[in-house]
Each structure stands twice: as C-alpha cells, then as structure tokens.
Amino acid sequence: MASTLLTSKHVAYIQSLDTKRDRLDYHLTSHLRLSGVYWGLTSLHLLNHPTALPRSETIDFVKSCYHPSSGGLGASPGHDPHLLYTLSGIQILATIDALDEIDGDKVVEYVSKLQNPDGSFSGDEWGEVDSRFVYCALSTLSLLGRLGDAPGVSAEGAVGFVLRCLNADGGFGMAPAAESHAGQIFTCVGALKIAGVFEKSLSEDQVNLLGDWLCERQLPNGGLNGRPEKLEDVCYSWWVLSSMAMIGKLQWIDREKLVEFILSCQDEENGGIADRKGDVADVFHTVFGVAGLSLLGYEGLKEVDPVYCMPKDVTDRIVWNHRKILTT
Ligand code: GRG
C-alpha cells in the first residue's frame, strides 16, 4: 500500500481522461463533464501542476457549454443549463484567470432568476430545490465579484433559507427538516461564510455541536462517513474536513489515520483515487482526496480554500483580498 502521494501518477491519470473518447464510460459521464473538468483542474493545481491541461482548449470547452440566451452553463455542449455546471464553469475560468471570456452580467441574470420567494434557489428551470443550489448561486456571484451587486438576488433571503436547514443535532440538511448530511453541511456553512454572516448566525454552543457531529464521522479505519451508520468514503475527506476547517475545528480529527486512509485509496498503477481501497479510481474522488490532504497540510500540496474548494491563491486574488479592502 502506497505510503506517499503518487503525484506524477495522478497528473498522468487526469491528463488521460480526455483521451478516452472511444470508451463507453466517457460518454456515460457527459452529464457531469464540466464539473469533471473543474475536479481535474483543481486537482492539478493543488498537485502543483497548474499547466498540465491546455488553457485555450479548456476555455473553449467552457464556452461551448455556455447558453448565451439564458446566461447559464450546461455539463456538456447541448446540455441544458444548471446552477451546478454554471458554478463549475466559473470556477474553471477563475482558476485559469479567464473570467473575462464570459459575459458575467448574463451569468448573474441566470443565477438571479433561479431564486425563489423563500430565499432558496432552484437548480434549473425545472425547479428542484436543495441547499446545494444556494451555495452554487452565492459562490458563482462571489467569484464574479457580484455578491452585493446582483439585481433581484436577496442574500438575506438565501441566508434565511440556509439557517432553516439547521437541525437540532448540529448539522444541516438539503432543506428545512431534512436529515443532516456532511455534503449539505459543506454547502450551508460555505454559503454562510461566503455571505459573511457565519460568525453572527451560529452561537458558540451551536458551532461546538456541529464540530462534534462532524468529528464523529471518523471511523476506526481512519476514513470519514457522511452521516451516522454509513460507510467511509474519500469524498467526505472534503465535505467533512472543509466544514471543520471553516469552523476552526480541524484539530478534532485524527490526522494521521485520515492521511493513511486517503493514501490507501490510490490506484498505484494507473493513478487516481477511489472512494475506498480497492475500488475503481475516478476524478471526483481524486480531487476530494487531494483537497482533503491539502487541508491536512500534506507536504508538497498547494493550499486549498475550504470555502470555495479552489486553490487559495486564486480565491485570495479574486475574493478575499478584495473583501479585505472593502472592509478596512
Ligand atoms: C465546489 C466542491 C464544490 C461543490 C459545489 C454540488 C455541491 C456544491 C455540493 C455537493 C454536496 C453534497 C451533497 C455532497 C455529497 C455527495 C455524495 C457522496 C452523496 C452521496 O449520498 P448517499 O446518500 O451516500 O448516496 P451516503 O454516504 O450517505 O451513503
């Protein structure tokens, strides 16, 4: 079992993903493609190989997913626009410093039309509501520098919806009264952080309860699950750990055991990281394994931003420094 991160294998694995167009699984994942590019690109940046994907082809692909009529982006060319892929497209362009390649006003218009009267956001025109979409909306607006300048968007309404997703066990669910889940906790805490209201929204006792719920996700094998009685999965090394980082409780995790668990899920031959040891690797678990290791301070990795799941130097350039200037 590998005891170190197999960086060059993972870089080669991510680079190979777009060359497998003759394979069925390539086409079966076209409904995820733009997020797949975001996961691969983010992994490469964190692995310190920021130029391993061709920049101009990456920009062209993002633009090919853009719908000029609505301002939203779909997962692949010809796919309907959705907030999930709109965020992924903006994250990609932000990471490679190419936000000017897209009409930001139109994207803001797309996002604003998806807000509902109760403050929640629908994922697309068909109306599914989920706390994930509040996160996607606020993150997209903030990366575009338009959080406080998006006509028709009520950040207060969005925050109100997120706070109604808070449960008595300390966690957050996908909607009010829905079961707490680590993925949803990431989106709710992240949305409150992006809106700049986390600290004033939750009491110290509530933050401690949330920290307890999150650190209880670590299982004896070192891996994390996403809710009680469930199996460990590498992706929770992101959803749980980033939430703990955002609330300042990262030290409540057994770091060594989690590092060992993530490293044990690497494909030592072909690169990539799987959900758990022995399973087939994929780019989704690769990014969240690498990003989790980055949060744990694993040597040689670039720092990840726990709020945006993007390289910290990128979000410093785009969001945080700008915000510091505004508040000082
Ligand atoms: C910028 C990283 C980033 C994300 C954008 C889409 C989104 C915002 C966040 C998704 C949050 C989420 C709900 C993650 C969970 C994903 C997941 C592995 C769900 C599996 O759920 P179950 O019920 O699995 O199939 P369990 O582990 O509970 O058995």
Describe the 3D structure.
- With 328 residues, this protein is an all-alpha fold.
- It has one domain (7-327): Glycosyltransferase, CATH 1.50.10.
- 50% of the residues lie in helices and 1% in strands.
- It contains 15 helices and 2 strands.
- A hairpin with a 4-residue loop joins strand 1 (304-305) and strand 2.
- It binds geranylgeranyl diphosphate.
- Geranylgeranyl diphosphate (GRG) binds next to helix 5, helix 7 and helix 9.
- It catalyses: geranylgeranyl diphosphate + L-cysteinyl-[protein] = S-geranylgeranyl-L-cysteinyl-[protein] + diphosphate.
- One of its GO terms (cellular component) is Rab-protein geranylgeranyltransferase complex.
Please give the share of residues in helix: 40-55%
Helical stretch tally: 15
Helices and strands, in order, run as HHHHHHHHHHHHHHEEH
- Alpha-carbon distance between the two ends: 50 Å
Rounded mean pLDDT score? 96
Structural class assignment: mainly alpha
Beta fraction of the residues? under 5%
Contiguous low-pLDDT stretches (5 residues minimum) are none
- Main beta-sheet annotation: 2 strands, antiparallel
GO molecular function: metal ion binding; Rab geranylgeranyltransferase activity
Domain Prenyltransferase alpha-alpha toroid: 5-310
Function: Catalyzes the transfer of a geranylgeranyl moiety from geranylgeranyl diphosphate to both cysteines of proteins with the C-terminal sequence -XXCC, -XCXC and -CCXX.
Protein name: Geranylgeranyl transferase type-2 subunit beta
